[in-house]
Records
---
Amino acid sequence: MREYEVECIRCGARYSKDDIVYTCRKCDGLLDIKYDYSEIDTERVVKAKGEGVWKYRVLLPFDQETKPVTINEGNTPLYRCDRLAKSIGIDDLWVKHEGLNPSGSFKDRGMTVGVTKAVELGVKGVACASTGNTSASLAIFAAKVGFPCYVLLPKGKVALGKVAQAMMHGAKVFSLKGNFDDALRVVRVLCEEEKLYLLNSVNPYRLEGQKTIAFEVAEKLDWEVPDRVILPVGNAGNISAIFKGFSELKTLGIADSVPKMTGIQAEGAKPIVNAFKEGNSEIIPEDKPETIASAIRIGNPVNAAKALTAIRDSGGVAESVTDDEITEAQLMLARLEGIGVEPASAASFAGLKKLVQMGEIERDERIVCITTGHLLKDPERVIRICEPPKEVDADVDVVREMLK
Ligand code: AN7
């Protein structure tokens, strides 16, 4: 029996495992899953067998007997990127391509845990608000178990591939006249009142799955954690989850430090960067977030409190990048390393490049960038930034002439 508590990070209030609760009923604080680490056998982490998220089930909130709802998420490649490193004058760069999860984004890691929990709770349906990837992933997992699935997407602001996935896998898709933050506000009330299970990253079970990114990175590097992990930040769940994963490795004595958690936001949607730079513990929500990186077009990140702790406690930073910098980084990842990512994911490398130029990052640091979503999620963006195919006659001489 895996023992754990669901605890408010602000007031410490505790909730039982059978309670369907997303934020603290007393103070509205975020919830976290707490384990008794003295009970966990570190050998079962370090020598774990299997692949992907469930390989680390000793650090997940389920009994050993629980049958996971899984689509073989996780176990994504960690690429050593010497060409990219050289291009910005650093020595030791790695990219973990989470776009190679089954649905094309890291969201699958959280969903496998969240939907397994939903089955355990016996809910009647699932729902989320989404900038796209969450809805695509949830639609797939819901299809797998036959849950009705409702997704609220900000109208006209979701990349084509993501909407296609949600539709194809049978979710009921709503195009909401408003932005992501409006959609999340609406779906949270709906879930309370209509008894649907909410699977946005405010749900603490989601983050338990996503923390396995940290375990995979550490394991691939022979349990030597990198100096720094850089990733895009939207609703701020992933940075919080990865920080938790590394912190657990330290608590268990498997690693001796935690990487500097470095969060990158788009210039037009950067409430966490602002709070970090001003030394505030709370963010000021942005009413009109705007960026071509539609996945992180979020003005009121729900996990801000956890993310700011992750960044500060690990000695990291938060920085923003322009849409042009994101586009340049997307092209560099694609053309120097063959790593195809959607715009939001490229924010990680764009941020790295900027921080190196600013002198914030040492040349010899070992750095891992997390690229969160696949290139094919947003084909419309590719068409806007790349040279279009040239139309030619079916004639060797004509084509040869055009090679010049
Ligand atoms: C590719 O799908 O919020 O900081 O609704 O799709 O954990 O929110 C997506 C977020 C980064 C930001 N990269 O992660 C959604 C959604 C990609 C993303 C993020 C998202 P968080």
---
Amino acid sequence: MLDLTIIGAGPAGMTAALYALRSGLSVAIIEQGAPGGQLLKTEKIENYPGFVDGVLGMDLATNMFMQINAFENFKLINDTAKKISKNADNFTVNISIGTVDSKAVIVATGGYPKTLDIPGEKQFAGKGVSYCAICDGFFFKNKVVAVIGGGNTALEDAIYLASIAKEVYLIHRRNTFRGSQILVDKLKSYNNVHLVLEKVPVEIKGDTKVSEILVKDLKTNEITSMFVNGVFLAIGQIMNSEFVKDSLDTDGLGHIVVNEKMASVTSGIFACGDIITKNLRQVSTAVGDGAIAGQMAYEYISQL
Ligand code: NAP
């Protein structure tokens, strides 16, 4: 039996694995996509300490994975965790091709993008509607795009797209931003970025691809049309905690409640990264939580 199962290979899960492996534990990470999590959707991270000129999300993800993959006691299981069950003295995680048993479990599953649920959004997904600027921005070279949202993701997406697309419209429902001021200032320095404030999209239209977005002015209720080739949605995240909601404590937004040791209400199950209740969701905080979770899982297992 394994010592530790970690669910999710984002920065939190990979850091937890690093600490647990260095303490001598055998560790499996269950990850449904590629290792890296949200790092893979971020072009450049400028607020991760130690990188004066920033670091590419892809590079940081690759290096984090190479560091843990070098351990003999590590394995990556490319699958989706469906359920965690507590047995007499261990845990079973159900995945689609069977089960994984271990002495402790760390949940580091993060979230996935929220949808707006407006007409045309589903119809044009992959045909102009995107939830990942880094993945799809390339297809909009010299085209006109809209980014929806006012958080750090929307601001970073708009900055990224400003150097690819001809025009970028940032559509946000308020006139102040949830994201950092440093990103707002940077965004405003681009001549091809236009802020469309106190407005919300109400419909995405087109023929085979997106060609138009209808936006409603929240002060006047007037609806106007904007011609765009692409719509990038960055309106927040839904937590990947559905599979543990019956066994662990979650808040109203799906975040797992943990203590300062990253321990959940169930002894032996820890959580870290964006999935937990906390005030600041950053790569640096994910790495910090991950280190604590990995070390605390080691201490828990040592006392069994
Ligand atoms: P977020 O901070 O929750 O922001 C979501 C944005 O979308 C908000 O501006 C919100 O408007 C808007 N929004 C939500 N629902 C909407 C709707 N139905 N219609 C129109 N607009 C809607 O999400 P995020 O930007 O994805 O960031 C998630 C977390 O990751 C945050 O903690 C963020 O700081 C962090 N993050 C950090 C970095 C970085 O530091 N480099 C980069 C990316 C993300 P309101 O503001 O009016 O609520």
